[in-house]
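User: Can you recover a sequence for this backbone? Please restate the input before giving your answer.

Assistant: Of course. Working from this structure:
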């Protein structure tokens, strides 16, 4: 009996990736293949956040349909499939099985029965879901909640992911402990709005409790929290993260804009003053790494407020910034507002992007000469004599890599921690020399 083969494409965010890993766990009797041609089953876990992501999801489905073998099954899951379930089932004849964001732990049954299904409940993985962790043998994403109680004017996520639904602390702790047993030691905590973690369970500052609990788990050497939300991020939390021996002084807080009127129009809960107070408090922390996200061209954004955003970005110098062009999404409060012409949206996104490229270089140049903790991931794709590594203070993939061009003749083990000296910024690439291999003492 030939081994069944599976090709899975996970699009969108790290939360979607966790759900894809749950599906891989349910389909562990399949051999995972990197190409679609010979696969018996092809799954695309889609993203439906903004136009660009929706387009990528549809194109991925259509391309895989072209490449698939005759009797294979093509499965569409995830946010785009959930958001437009009835239209897609009518129009996308290429797909054999449709499912949304509620059946990840039943994917094996749907494939067995060749049946589409959309559960009304939004699925949230917990410690009982055996995941196949992808992309690393030491780092894993931990999804701590699903859904969102915020009402940002541009975002449709609450419409298809529902209200905030947090995992219990004990469930999170159990999952991490079992991953530590499997050799994992670096964790990134994700959700739609992480700083609201536990509010639906009556926790006041759930992340502070989570940090306390995670710090007690033996074997956890490093961690960070992604997706903080301004109006639910407290000074206590910022201090707690900075004081932690396990959590990196890493602050990922999308603010989307900095102008008071725009923040009000975007329904972001916090205005300019409070948002900047939070950021300044983060910046006051030693070795703080601050990442954010901006939207360019949201309805109501005047030339003045855009200029203000550009000036603020130049002055504050975030370590990393994601710039999004505004995407007009149905079921959002901005949908019926007077829209800014696409040409101006794109021009503003480009201008802001250019500023961000400069501030990112400034952030990188500040690291030259420093001794830092890094983890070596593998041989660099750029050159066989270079090693691809990541400072432990950075998040996986999104913050980039640094290249080790001098190993000081140390024995190299992938997935292990080394002390390294940053020697140079070559273009936008940091270069480093290894100093010593060592086990972080927690
Ligand atoms: S916090 Fe705002 S942008 Fe993020 S998922 Fe919730 S509504 Fe959307």
């Amino acid at each position: 009996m030939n081994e069944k083969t599976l090709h899975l494409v996970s699009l969108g965010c790290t939360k979607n990736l966790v759900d894809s890993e749950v599906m891989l766990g349910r389909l562990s009797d399949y051999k995972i293949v990197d190409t679609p041609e010979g696969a018996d089953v092809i799954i695309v876990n889609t993203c439906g956040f903004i136009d660009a992501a929706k387009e990528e999801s549809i194109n991925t489905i259509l391309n895989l349909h072209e490449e698939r073998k005759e009797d294979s099954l093509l499965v569409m899951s995830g946010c785009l499939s959930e958001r437009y379930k009835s239209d897609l089932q009518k129009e996308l004849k290429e797909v054999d099985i449709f499912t949304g964001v509620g059946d990840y732990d039943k994917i094996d049954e749907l494939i067995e029965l060749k049946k589409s299904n959309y559960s009304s409940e939004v699925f949230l993985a917990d410690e009982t879901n055996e995941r196949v962790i992808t992309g690393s043998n030491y780092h894993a994403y931990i999804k701590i909640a699903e859904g969102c109680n915020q009402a940002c004017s541009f975002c449709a996520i609450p419409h298809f992911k529902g209200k905030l639904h947090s995992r219990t602390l004990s469930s999170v702790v159990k999952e991490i402990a079992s991953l530590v047993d499997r050799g994992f030691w670096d964790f990134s905590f994700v959700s739609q709005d992480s700083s609201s973690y536990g509010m639906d369970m009556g926790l006041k500052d759930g992340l502070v409790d989570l940090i306390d609990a995670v710090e007690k788990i033996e074997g956890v050497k490093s961690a960070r929290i992604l997706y903080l939300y301004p109006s639910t991020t407290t000074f206590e939390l910022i201090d707690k993260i900075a004081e932690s021996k396990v959590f990196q002084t890493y602050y990922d807080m999308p603010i989307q804009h900095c102008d008071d009127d725009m923040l009000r129009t975007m329904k972001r809960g916090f205005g300019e003053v409070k948002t900047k107070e939070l950021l300044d408090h983060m910046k006051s922390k030693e070795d703080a790494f601050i990442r954010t996200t901006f939207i360019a061209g949201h309805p109501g954004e005047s030339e003045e407020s855009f200029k203000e955003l550009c000036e603020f970005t130049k002055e504050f110098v975030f370590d990393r910034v994601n710039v999004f062009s505004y995407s007009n999404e149905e079921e959002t409060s901005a949908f019926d507002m007077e829209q800014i012409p696409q040409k101006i949206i794109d021009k503003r996104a480009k201008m802001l992007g250019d500023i961000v490229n400069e501030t990112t270089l400034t952030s990188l140049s500040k690291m030259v000469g420093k001794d830092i903790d890094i983890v070596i991931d593998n041989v660099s794709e750029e050159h066989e004599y270079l090693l691809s590594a990541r400072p432990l203070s950075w998040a996986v993939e999104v913050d980039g890599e640094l290249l080790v061009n001098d190993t000081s003749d140390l024995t190299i083990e992938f997935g292990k921690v080394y002390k390294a000296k940053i020697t140079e910024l070559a273009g936008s690439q940091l270069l480093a020399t290894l100093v010593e291999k060592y086990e972080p003492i927690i």
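That completes the design. The pocket of iron/sulfur cluster is lined by residues 148, 150, 152, 155, 157-158, 192-193, 229 (CB under 6 Å).
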